[in-house]
Structure formats: structure tokens, C-alpha cells
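Ticket #4471: structure export looks truncated?
Reporter: QA, pipeline team
Priority: medium

Steps to reproduce: submit the single chain below to the structure queue and open the exported record.
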Amino acid sequence: MTDPVKFKCASVIGVGLIGSSLARALREAGLVDEIVGVDRDADVIARAQKLGVIDRGETDLARGVKGADLIILSTPVGAIGAVADELASAVDDGALIVDVGSVKGVAVEAASRMPERVCFVPCHPVAGTEQSGPEAGFASLFHDRWCILTPCPRDDAAYKAAIDKAAALWSGVGAKVEIMTAEHHDLALAVTSHLPHLIAFTIVGAADDVESVAAGEIVKYSAGGFRDFTRIAASDPVMWRDVFLNNKEAVLEVLGRFSEELAVMQRAIRWDDGKTLEDAFSRVRGLRKAIVEAGQESAAPNFGRDNKGG
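Actual output as written to the record:
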């Protein structure tokens, strides 16, 4: 258990689902005195302020991070490098910067360019929903979820202390913390998150292209499996565009393996090979059971997705 941490002022750059959820969680846990929202869209700032997610807001990055001892970088992955470069000259000495992106190679590269007077610790809270915007956030989003830290290769005392502080931040909002390299993270998430999203986008798109099946029939007759694919495919398209473009090597590697497995299934169906199909289906059932037992999913009807955090 890490020691508790407290911040005077947190600047949340990008007040969407994750940014607004973390702001709510920090406030609920009493880990911050003031929260500033930073977003290029003034309407997002106004909505977040009306909701009480932030205390004040700025559309100018430099003004928004002035005086902050915690900066939360909650932009699409493709913007992390440019925003981090702009932050390098704008943040106060000793400030802790964390991001929340699901691709860590680009974040570590950006963190490695930062001056030593500030510490950028790349982070990925493995949590979310298909919703977006400040209204979608909720404080319990990170409870009992994993947050993966992928620090850049700095071994000075200040950076080591920043890693501990980042770990305490996530523990403080209910997450479980693990540290690994960016390379390992990006491959692991390509398997567990990025490829499933790519498959969902593709399957839902393919269903929409079947001209002999009306759109109304797809909606009317959707079984649980297709319904889950539509939930995943409803995720923010800009965010996922950036994920695939910035984690292309790992995604393409895993996609190649998936294509090989899919070819095996295709052959088994063509040649009435029931044993291959049954063996494959039996093998993967054990993984589903392990996920439920690890607390990363509910065994309740509809997989527990009737609650907001599903």
C-alpha cells in the first residue's frame, strides 16, 4: 500500500470521460485542493464547470497549468507528443505530469524529452466506457481496475519520487498499480483491448454492409454477442484512430495471429470439422472464467453491464 498523496492544484488537459472521472475521483478522495480544466473547446469547459467537475477552466494551455503541481494529460494519444512539448516550458518546477493514454510508447518518447525540472510518468488506467464527454465521467471508474505505469528511463532521485507519487495517486482513487515497460504494455494491450476494438468496429461495419438484411432487422434481432460488439464499436472514433496509428506494430503482429486462427476456424466450418471447433471453444471458456474470478468482469446476467461502469 502506497502512502497517501495530496496536491494543491491539478490541471486536467482534456475533460472527457477519463479526465472528468479522474477529476471527480481526486475530489471525492480529498487528494486535491483545486481542479483546473484545460480544453480547446470552451463549451466543454463550461459544461464541466457547470457539473462541478472543475473549479475553473482555461482554453490556453500555459495559463491552465500555471501553479499546478499535478498535470493530467487526457488527450487522444496522437496529441500527447505535441502537448507534452508545449508543457515542457509551461509547467512549474517539480510538477508531476501523468497521461492516461492506452499506447505508452509515444508517451515514454514524449516523457524522455522533458527537462529534468519536471517529471512525466506515463500511465494507463485500464478502465472506461463507450461514452465520452465530461457528462460521462464518474468517480468510481477506477475502483479495483488496474493502472499500468511505464516510466521513462530516468534514474535520478526526483524521477523515482515522481513514480512513487504517481502510484499513490492511482491507489488513492481506488486503482491497483503495476509497472512495466512501454513495449510490453503496448503488446499486452494490443491483445486485450486494441484488437477487440478493431474486430468490433469491423464486425459492426460488416453487418451494416449486408444489403439483404435491413438495418431495422439488425437492431431488432441483435443477440447478446452482437450487442456487445456495438457497445465497443460506439467508442470515441478519434481516440481509437490515434490508438491504431500509434501502436501499429503491436496491433499488426496480433492481427496476424488472429488471422491465422480465423483461417483455422474457416477451414473447420468448411470441412464439417466439429472436433476442431469444439476444442477451440472449450479452450477459451477457461479464460473467460479466469477474467471473472480476477474481478475484471461480472458473472451477473448481461455480464453486469446494467450498471454504469460495465
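Status: closed, not a bug. The export was complete when the record was re-opened. Leaving a note from the reviewer for reference: Residues 256 and 262 are 10 Å apart (CA to CA).
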